[in-house]
Write a structure and sequence with these properties.
about 50 residues; alpha+beta; four-stranded antiparallel β-sheet
């Protein structure tokens, strides 16, 4: 977890990802933060303050 905080390498949980309003939504398997993926782009941590 400490390295995750230092380097910010997030890993989307593909088993729980789902389609929502034109994007894929998932959570980081390490910290649980929401991640989103637009078609053709890589997974990113969501900027929504959820």
């Amino acid at each position: 977890m400490m390295l995750h905080r230092l380097f910010g390498k997030h890993d989307a949980d593909l088993k729980t990802s789902h389609w929502d309003r034109g994007r894929f939504v998932s959570e980081c398997t390490i910290c649980g933060r929401e991640m989103v993926k637009l078609p053709g782009l890589p997974w990113q941590v969501s900027s929504n303050p959820a």
